[in-house]
Amino acid sequence: MSRIRRTRTRPSELLLIWLAHHLRSARESLRRLFGMPLPTTMTVAVLGISLALPATLYVGTDNLRAMTGRWDQTAAISLFLRHEVDSSTARALAERLRARPELARVELIEPDQALAEFKELGGFEGALEALDDNPLPAVLALYPTPRHATSEQLRALEQQMVTLPEADFARMDTLWIERLQAILALAEAATLLLGALLGLGVLLIVGNTIRLEILNRRGEIEIMELVGATAAFIRRPFLYAGAWYGLLGGLCATLLVTFSSGALQGSVSRLAALYGGEFRIAGLGLDGTLVVLLAGIALGLVGSWIAVGRHLRGAEAD
């Protein structure tokens, strides 16, 4: 009696078979999506808009924060000296303050220089020329070091500067920046909340789309169940379909954000030119683009997993 030899499949061959099936499922899922151009385009467009809204808000707050970073380079404290303080005394005071460890830079704006700048920016040249004396005092622009730039430290420094015998009064120039930063913090929190809500919307959209595809392929799924296909085997093509939807939606979102940034650049450049500056809108960048794409893929996978899981649990119950 001859013995029947059973050949065992090696682990490497099993891995190749598993990878080949995954590749075939991914190709087949993508082919099905392109086979339905109108429904796929509509679904991808909705997903792209849902992902683009929080991404655009993030880009906006990030650019505003970059602008405030530039504004932080302005003088934090302007120290106005008494009118009777002459130029030599003001220069000596500036030298003494430059030796303080909490100050990175001290600039002296003498009365004649301040008057010239005021004539250029104020539009009161005729009225200023009619004055017999220069009414403007000398001003010291104080720039703190980054380690001494907190609100509490600046207020303490302001109080110390006012007590100097040469000082008349001091003015902090960073209060409006602090308010803007508080607004930006609120905008970031709103971005997270909006992202969470729209992410839930993406899950529902992908889940409903996959559910409809499951209904269209019910006969095929029933045949696979009859021949003993596992739940993972049945679930796999739908997971790839959800991932493709998420990836295409992420690509659509990045294009929308890029287009929006380019459309607004002209208006931003004109506004910056009015203030004598120049500002280029920064887009998502490589990191932001990867985050949007990965978020789209993850939401697509989760949405399809939920939809297929509900179908499989329903099939088991029947």
From TrEMBL:
The keyword Cell inner membrane applies. Keywords: Cell cycle, Cell division, Cell inner membrane, Cell membrane, Membrane, Transmembrane, Transmembrane helix. Pfam families: FtsX, FtsX_ECD. One of its GO terms (biological process) is cell division. It is a multi-pass membrane protein. Residues 76-165 form the FtsX extracellular domain. InterPro entries: ABC3_permease_C (IPR003838), FtsX (IPR004513), FtsX_ECD (IPR040690), FtsX_proteobact-type (IPR047590). The chain crosses the membrane at residues 42-60, 182-206, 243-264, 284-308. Gene3D superfamilies: 3.30.70.3040. Belongs to the ABC-4 integral membrane protein family. FtsX subfamily. Part of the ABC transporter FtsEX involved in cellular division. Forms a membrane-associated complex with FtsE. This is Cell division protein FtsX.
